[in-house]
From TrEMBL:
KW Metal-binding (keyword) present: yes
Record-linked Pfam families: Aminotran_5
Gene3D superfamilies: 1.10.260.50, Aspartate Aminotransferase, domain 1, Type I PLP-dependent aspartate aminotransferase-like (Major domain)
Name of the featured protein: Putative cysteine desulfurase IscS 1
Cofactor(s), names only, from the UniProt record: pyridoxal 5'-phosphate
Length: 379
């Protein structure tokens, strides 16, 4: 039986060219980039080159890139680092109810430290309303943190418009763009953000490495202490092979972005059309048009998600009920609960399908058949 992987929003397989770029580093370059001798300088050059190429890819300066251990650390570093640096100006933070837990739980932690957080509602497509956002801004607002594209339903937020609203305010603006990089052109100047999080393993790079963009001049107080790496913004010995892999994955994603986007939209269409042809009762959660093309979240009335996921897995199809951080939990999706209400059935009967580079039309057609057969059997 072929096992079909449709959970790329959780993580992606390593691209062969990424592995190829990393292997020589593991084999030959072992020096600490902070050391001044030959072995250290050899490693440092790789880190510096990667920093420059990554900065160029997002329209930033090399000194605005801070390497991290991944997206969670990048989010934590951005939110805690700026909140602590800005607390003399105020203690109010704005976020949304559908953020990744790396953002939500960090904001909840800051509430225990005396900060006040406003959690914005979203509409039934999962989108923040700009008038509600504008009304939430206060004189003591110091930070806004809103994701670019949602990791469960794929809805894209009006980041540029929010940045324009904040232009006359001193509040900093952070966006978690982890899910967007593979399918959207992400340039920090165009978006108008002060901070942005990114991770490698969502774009066929290695796990355990990511970066945080910090706009030059942004008030920032590091919360991880140790050495003076990353211009004293993030202590810890650099993951040189990971950083090289991150750079390669980002370059590959940028080169094939439009092609990938079109491919994922074709795969979405295959599933939706097949389910309709089979007269399956379902609906799409989120905005099919203004969304990240690799994410498709479907509601099947009357289907309980946990046995549904198990049955699909036994049938050879790997999907999820939402973010990987809550996999195995019977709790309803916080994203769908925010969109439809706490007691809404969508939060208990929906699955997330997410596509990747190596999914073929034949695979997805087979997956659609298995999904349809499973729904019919469970009703």
């Amino acid at each position: 039986m072929e096992h079909i992987y449709l959970d790329h929003a959780a993580t992606t397989p390593l691209h062969p060219k990424v592995l190829e770029s990393m292997l020589p580093i593991y084999q030959k370059v072992f020096g600490n980039p902070s050391s001044i001798h030959y072995f250290g300088r050899e490693a440092r050059k790789l880190v510096d080159d990667a920093r420059e190429n990554i900065a160029k890819a997002i329209g930033a300066k090399p000194n605005e890139i801070v390497f991290t251990s991944g997206g969670t650390e990048a989010d934590n570093t951005a939110i805690i680092g700026t909140a602590m640096a800005m607390k003399a100006k105020g203690n109010h933070i704005i976020t949304s109810k559908i953020e990744h837990h790396a953002v939500l739980h960090t904001c909840q932690y800051l509430e225990t430290q005396g900060f006040e957080v406003t959690y914005l509602d979203v509409d039934e497509k999962g989108r923040i309303q700009l008038d509600e956002f504008q009304q939430a801004i206060r004189e003591d607002t110091i930070l806004v943190t809103v994701m670019y594209g949602n990791n469960e339903v794929g809805t894209i937020q009006p980041i540029r418009e929010m940045a324009q609203i904040l232009e006359e305010h001193s509040a900093l603006f952070h966006t978690d763009a982890v899910q967007a990089f593979g399918v959207k052109k992400v340039e920090v100047q165009a978006l108008g953000v002060d901070l942005m999080s990114m991770v490698a393993h969502k774009i066929n790079g290695p796990k355990g490495v990511g970066f945080l963009y910090v706009k030059e001049g942004t008030p920032f107080s590091p919360y991880q202490h140790g050495g003076e790496q990353e211009r004293k913004r993030r202590a810890g010995t650099h993951n040189v092979p990971g950083i090289v892999g991150l750079e390669k994955a980002l370059v590959l994603a940028a080169e094939n972005r439009d092609e990938n986007d079109s491919h994922y939209r074709r795969l979405q269409t295959i599933i939706l059309q097949y389910l309709e042809e089979q007269h399956i009762d379902f609906s799409v959660n989120g905005d099919v048009k203004d969304c990240l093309s690799h994410i498709l979240n479907l509601y099947f009335p009357g289907i309980k998600v946990e046995p549904f996921l198990t049955a699909l897995d036994l049938g050879g199809v790997a999907v999820s009920s939402g973010s990987a951080c809550t996999a195995g939990s019977v709790e309803p999706s916080h994203v769908l609960s925010a969109m439809y209400g706490k007691e809404a059935e969508q939060a208990k009967s929906s699955i997330r399908i997410s596509f990747g580079l190596y999914n073929t039309e034949e695979q997805v057609t087979q997956a659609a058949k298995i999904i349809a057969q499973t729904v019919k059997r469970m009703l």
